[in-house]
Design brief:
The complex is a heterodimer of chains A (291) and B (323). Chain A has 291 residues and is mainly α. Chain A is built from 14 helices and no strands. The longest helix of chain A is centred in the C-terminal third of the chain and has 42 residues. Chain B is an all-alpha fold. Chain B contains 17 helices and no strands. Classes of the chains: A mainly alpha (291), B mainly alpha (323). Chains A and B meet through helix 1, helix 4, helix 5, helix 6 and helix 10 of A and helix 2, helix 3, helix 7, helix 8 and helix 9 of B.
């Protein structure tokens, strides 16, 4: 494809470039505004003088955020759920996906049906809630780890990937006397780093960003993740009320604190995402080519 | 299934008996694949316990469930809850809201990534293209809580930036989140914001797969850029568009509650309350387990029928389907 040389073509190029710049602004502006508000001088922020770039400079809001012990608890919990949950997710997903990728596996058909059917129909919120209660998982960390342990979509992605590994590798390992678990561990897994990276990323982002399971299964404040704390602060307008702030300072700073909390909760993901973008794109692509 | 044992058996040099009993076959298969069975066992148990046991739990939709009696021992009430739901003022309102949100989502949210991908495809400068892509995928990674939180804060009637701006322009402030007229706009626009970039990935892949020779041939025939778009590019991604459209139509009766319950409030229930948020509110907040489970079941059944229908259509029309 060559550059347009006709006036009409050049006009089209200019219009497209303008639209794309507009797209960039639309995507970035909300976060940039939040960031600018969070580090601006409290007086400028309160007077609504900030539109795009920060006015003045103050880390006051961040100091107040980090003085709050609730944030630290919530942050620690989110890290815990993200690390432990993702590890469990990936382990369960690949141990399911690998046998389903083996064409000779005699339960391949029935288990695939068992798994895929849950995409189409589910018992729903209420029976699941009753089950979690009956199993004694209510108000324990395990509720967030075990529920949603396996995403069917990710099983399909992983199975598609495993099925691209040549059968001959498995056959020759078999001839060497290795059993299927050994083959999985020593032959398949070392070849599967890209797909494991994709799974880790998708599951980890899912854990980091999820709030609903915690909302219904974890009434205990000490176990709640960051996103649920954000619900209280940003949506329900509570959570900051009981923090230790003098009242005049509080009314001035509450908006800035909200913005600072958004930054604190979102920055880790936004910071690592551009470096890992290709894995996310790869994940979508593998998912699109159905195995 | 039946043929699966043949290759390895014959490879091992064992002559294949003419007819095996099913039990015999099962025993042989199990002993051959025992380590694979061992690998999948935890996941299979997980699916049975956390997906199929709740399906059994649906029985409570036809019972008067009380936690102390358990699902099995609670008394049967038949279709009482379903009938009660359809007799209430909520049934029509909830179904209407679900359908309208999906319709508007389809109208705005479906074309957005297609148009975006087409425009992106026209950009020749690779660095600029990559920057736009990276920036546009980013909102997908922002949590629904933060999106709802930013929306609420920006639209706050007192100190939200939108109302401050309205004020500066001499316009009246609007309490966006309490106004019935604004809810759908807010819901749909934040949805489009969060997903248009990321959803364009599949279309970009389809665009990249179009044979460059087709463009060359079109140019030799004197086709302008717009004509190339019309006669080469669009037909090239049409299958992808049709598949994704059919899949989305299969979800017409479902709206997730995760963002709804963060953005709605009693003053907008009239337009913002959907089946899933109603089930959550009545069932988990209100404790009417059986009634909520019945409403949920009704919705799940309709969704199931829709997905199966549109998947079948997709297979008929495009030879591609979910399963």
């Amino acid at each position: 494809m060559t550059h347009s040389t006709t006036p009409a073509g050049r006009l089209a190029d200019a219009v497209i470039t303008a639209i794309m710049l507009f797209v960039i602004v639309i995507c970035l502006y909300p976060l940039l505004y939040v960031f600018s508000m969070s580090i601006s001088d409290p007086l400028a922020a309160a007077a609504q003088e900030v539109w795009l770039l920060p006015k003045g400079f103050s880390l006051n809001a961040y100091n107040l955020v980090f003085e709050n012990p609730d944030i630290w608890t919530a942050y620690f919990n989110t890290l815990w759920y993200t690390v432990a949950g993702t590890a469990f997710n990936v382990l369960m997903t690949i141990t399911l996906a690998y046998p389903l990728s083996r064409r000779s596996f005699f339960l391949r058909g029935p288990i695939t049906f068992l798994v895929v059917f849950t995409m189409l129909f589910s018992g729903g919120l209420i029976p699941t809630f009753i089950l979690v209660n009956n199993l004694g998982l209510y108000n324990t960390r395990w509720a967030l780890i075990i529920l949603g342990a396996i995403g069917v979509w990710y099983v399909i992605i992983a199975r598609t990937y495993f099925s691209t590994i040549p059968e001959s590798l498995i056959e020759s390992a078999k001839l060497d006397g290795a059993n299927d678990i050994r083959i999985f561990w020593t032959v398949i897994l070392p070849l599967s780093k890209p797909i494991i990276a994709v799974l880790v990323l998708f599951y980890a982002v899912g854990h980091w960003n999820s709030y609903f399971s915690a909302l219904i299964y974890l009434p205990n404040k000490d176990l709640q993740p960051l996103q649920l704390y954000l619900v209280k602060v940003l949506v329900e307008n509570t959570g900051l009320a009981d923090s230790v702030m003098p009242s005049e300072e509080k009314s001035l700073a509450i908006m800035q604190i909200k913005y600072a909390i958004i930054i604190v909760a979102t920055l880790p993901i936004l910071f690592v995402y551009p470096f890992l973008q290709k894995y996310f794109v790869k994940g979508v692509m593998i998912g699109a080519i159905k195995g | 299934m039946q043929t699966s044992i043949a290759p390895s058996e014959s490879r091992a040099g064992v002559p294949l008996p003419k007819r095996e009993s099913a039990l015999e076959r099962l025993r042989k298969n199990t002993s051959r694949d025992k380590f694979l069975v061992l690998l999948v066992l935890p996941s299979v148990i997980y699916f049975i316990v956390f997906h199929y046991v709740p399906m059994y739990g649906i029985l409570m939709a036809f019972k008067d469930f009380s936690p102390s009696q358990g699902i099995w021992n609670s008394p049967w009430v038949g279709l009482k809850w379903i009938r009660e739901f359809f007799d209430s003022i909520y049934s029509f309102r909830l179904i209407k809201n679900v359908l309208l949100l999906n319709l508007y989502g389809l109208l705005w949210g479906f074309p957005a990534p297609i148009i975006f991908a087409l425009l992106l495809n026209e950009i020749r400068r690779n660095v600029f293209k990559r920057v736009v892509q990276t920036v546009s995928y980013m909102p997908h990674f922002i949590s629904v809580v933060v999106i709802a939180g930013m929306t609420i804060t920006f639209l706050s009637p007192n100190d939200g930036i939108v109302n401050v701006m309205l004020d500066k322009l001499g316009l009246a402030r609007i309490n966006f989140l309490s106004e019935v007229d604004w809810f759908r706009t807010i819901y749909i626009s934040t949805d489009v914001w969060a997903s248009f970039g990321y959803s364009s990935i599949l279309y970009l892949a389809a665009l990249a797969a179009i044979d460059p020779q087709l463009y060359e041939a079109a140019r030799i025939d004197g086709a302008s850029r717009f004509r190339q778009l019309l006669h080469v590019t669009l037909p090239g991604i049409a299958p992808t568009i049709i598949i994704l459209l059919l899949l989305q139509l299969g979800r017409m009766m479902s709206v997730g509650f995760e963002k709804i319950i963060l953005l709605y409030n009693p003053s907008t229930y009239e337009v913002s309350d959907v089946i899933s948020s109603y089930v959550y509110r009545i069932g988990l907040v209100g404790g009417e387990f059986s009634f909520a489970a019945a409403v949920d079941l009704m919705n799940a059944t309709i969704n199931f029928a829709l997905i199966v229908t549109f998947n079948w259509l997709s297979r008929r029309l495009t030879q591609t389907s979910l399963w």
